[in-house]
Write a structure and sequence with these properties.
Length: 718
């Protein structure tokens, strides 16, 4: 059983909603020639917030045409007032309609959900619902470099799946101060039309403003975009097993908490919202832990570079002593590695780790060519940007860089050296469809030939024509099974969550409201049972019974027990292991939750079944459609998980299978899942799609570089 971020079926009482609220739709008059985006024409609603609009959201009706939905308390505002406000700062005209019960009942459930989630700031959730989504404002400001502000928003998908997305807001003044003009940079011309937001860092209020207002103070004005195109916001952890304040600031906890608050304040209008649960067949991973899994790769890399020369090359515009630090780290990591410092790439057939400046350096130095694009012809090269040189992440960065060199060697020689079960891939073929600059598509193939030898190439026009027809417009990944059946491989906009039991037990532990106390006799029975089952701690448990007998209390509440545990730790009466055993015993016998331990072996299935190992299941309406997700390795798992585990879909391609269809067999499902059990795609983790796509991706990048080089040479000859 796993839990997904998609809501299970729920009911909406539209009649009761309309006894408390009015819902309006706003459309731009279609006879006007120029259409304006929803986020632009919604600004005037926010500017004139004295309308008492509670929340708003929007929906794309057709290309360049949006509809705005507003919700307000019953009779708080009328359609004429809304229209007048919209047109106050606009040259456009709008149609505003108050929706009756029939119209509200016909709305997508997702639209009604967005409106009500966006009203949660009226019920204790810090944020604003006046920007189309619910933007959550943090309790403490974190203005990075006095430039960036990273804010998290709740997104309600069209299929009623919920997720939190972090967006980067940048001060308007910063674009000019750092030499990046919004109006002169053609690559980012879309920012000219981007809305501006006033963010009050003291009150933690955010609202959209009219950027053409001459009296506007732009000191607190932000644009929802990074200063540099590839700068990413600081992401909130998806899950953590750390301290309570860390757990409560994770995406998983905040999602569950938003749903919990929603249920408590809107139960009159909605049946209880719950995340959907799915029965799965779990593909376990054996006995290897994350560390052991990664150590296998480390050993292979060490053995490889003990026999092959590694050149460490500093190709930065301005160098410094960090190149020596990287070399020293390489030697510490792999004692047998032969790291040779060179100023330039000369060895056409060697292995070259090239340290370069980061992308931001070239964005701020327009006169300097990005040396990442340098052609090394036959040399095997992996670039390492200097901004990845961080003390905590250096080991993983170096391991990944060395691993990439081996993969490039594999592509050059067309032989696998990192995968040790090539026989299981016999009969499988992997295709990737890539869109070109002008919309043209190309198809690439990977398949095993003999033993460890493989074929990877771009299909010619005749071969690829069947893959890129009108019936396969969104096709990206395609798999052909040994039974000659084609399956589309698609990533769904659904991911797995920790189970509801974790959120409930954490809240129970925090509040203690649902926890009964235990009597002195019950506590002594638990200690006696532990004494029998764990003889190594018998003496310690019996000593604790003597201490309990001296207490005047007849029963012990959660807080009383916490005081006792603090006393035990301070006086070293029980070891941490013995205390954990007692915590488990009190939970099993009496349901007392004093500490939630989701990552220990016995609790992984209860709390984290969807976040660990490999799970697969069949579509309940079509047994030929298969879903799977790849989680983290459960044995000795990390204390945190940075990102959610998305669900992938294997769906028969009806066009390519038109001559006959063979359902994928369980044996082949397991062989397919086996291709995710590799340690050379993600650091110390499994990969989420079959590893041949990693080789295809690298091959495609190399092919694109060759095209760019050929184009540059052609231009020089003109």
């Amino acid at each position: 059983m796993i839990t997904t971020n998609q809501l299970a079926k729920f009911d909406i009482d539209t009649h009761k909603i309309l006894t408390s609220y009015d819902i309006y739709s706003v459309d731009q008059n279609l006879e006007e020639q120029r259409f304006i985006p929803r986020r632009i024409f919604s600004i005037n609603i926010d500017v004139e917030n004295n309308l008492d609009i509670n929340a708003l959201t929007g929906k794309k009706i057709q290309k360049n045409v949006y509809r705005l939905y507003l919700i307000a308390k019953k009779s708080a505002v009328n359609a004429q007032e809304i229209r007048a406000t919209l047109e106050k700062y606009s040259q456009h005209t709008f149609r505003v309609s108050k929706l009756d019960e029939k119209a509200v009942s016909s709305l997508d459930k997702a639209i009604i959900l967005r409106l009500f989630f966006n009203m949660l700031p009226f019920y204790g959730i810090k944020g604003t619902g006046m920007l189309g989504n619910l933007f959550l404002t943090p309790s403490k400001p974190h203005l990075t470099q006095k430039i960036y502000l990273d804010l998290t928003r709740l997104v309600v998908g069209n299929d009623c799946n919920l997720f939190l997305s972090t967006s980067r807001f940048t001060k308007v003044k910063s674009f000019k101060e750092h030499g990046i003009s919004l109006f002169n940079n053609m690559k980012r011309k879309s920012l000219n039309n981007a809305p501006w937001f006033d963010i009050d860092l003291k009150k933690w209020q955010i609202k959209q403003v009219n950027k053409y207002n001459k009296n506007l103070n732009i000191e607190n004005c932000f644009i929802n975009a990074p200063l540099y195109p590839k700068d990413k916001p600081r992401q909130m952890l998806f899950w953590s097993d750390g301290k309570l304040n860390q757990v409560q600031s994770t995406k998983f906890y905040r999602l569950y908490n938003l749903v919990s608050v929603f249920n408590s304040v809107f139960s009159e209008y909605f049946s209880e919202l719950k995340f959907e649960k799915v029965d799965t067949a779990k593909q376990l991973l054996g006995r290897l832990s994350q560390t052991e899994w990664g150590n296998q790769l480390d050993k292979h890399i060490e053995e490889f570079f003990a026999k092959n020369q590694l050149n460490l090359i500093d190709n930065r515009i301005v160098g410094d002593e960090r190149i020596e630090d990287i070399k020293a780290a390489l030697v510490r990591l792999l004692p047998t590695v032969k790291a040779n410092n060179r100023p330039t790439v000369e060895d056409k057939f060697g292995y070259n780790l090239v340290v370069i400046n980061n992308k931001q350096y070239f964005q701020t130095h327009d006169d300097i060519k990005d040396n990442y694009a340098t052609d090394y012809q036959q040399a095997i090269v992996q670039h390492l940007t200097i901004d990845t040189f961080r003390e905590g992440a250096l080991k993983s960065t170096l391991i990944n860089s060395l691993k990439e060199l081996i993969i490039k060697k594999d592509l050059k020689g067309r032989k696998l050296s990192l995968y040790h079960s090539p026989d299981s891939m016999k009969g499988w073929e992997f295709y990737q469809v890539v869109k070109g600059v002008y919309g043209a598509k190309a198809v690439y193939l990977f398949k095993m030939i003999n033993g460890i030898e493989f074929e990877v190439r771009r299909l010619d026009l005749q071969e690829s024509s069947k893959f890129i027809g009108s019936d396969n417009t969104d096709l990206q990944y395609l798999i052909k099974t040994p039974a000659n059946t084609f399956y589309n491989l698609n990533r769904k906009n659904i991911f797995t969550l920790p189970n509801a039991e974790l959120f409930n037990d954490l809240n129970e532990m925090i509040s203690h409201q649902n926890c009964s106390s235990v009597t002195k006799e019950e506590l002594k029975w638990a200690l006696n049972d532990l004494s029998k089952n764990h003889p190594n701690y018998r003496t310690k448990y019996q000593d604790l019974i003597s201490i309990i007998n001296k207490r005047e209390l007849d029963s012990f509440s959660i807080n009383d027990l916490k005081d006792e545990f603090d006393f035990m730790k301070k006086n070293k009466i029980l070891s941490p292991i013995a205390i954990n055993l007692l915590l488990d015993e009190l939970y099993e016998q009496y349901g007392l939750v004093l500490k939630v331990k989701p990552k220990i072996k016995d609790h992984v299935q209860k709390y984290l079944s969807g976040l660990t190992d490999i799970n697969y299941f069949f579509d309940k309406d079509d047994q030929d459609v298969i879903y799977y997700n790849v989680g983290t390795i459960s044995k000795n798992m990390n204390m945190s998980i940075a990102k959610a585990s998305h669900i992938w879909q294997l769906q028969p391609n009806t066009k390519l299978n038109e001559r006959g269809f063979a359902t994928i067999e369980t044996e082949n499902i397991l062989k397919f899942l086996q291709m995710m059990r590799v340690n050379f795609v993600r650091f110390h983790q499994l990969t989420v799609i079959p590893f041949p796509f990693k080789y295809l991706r690298e091959f495609i990048q190399l092919e694109e570089k060759k095209k760019l080089i050929k184009k540059d040479v052609t231009n020089l000859l003109k």
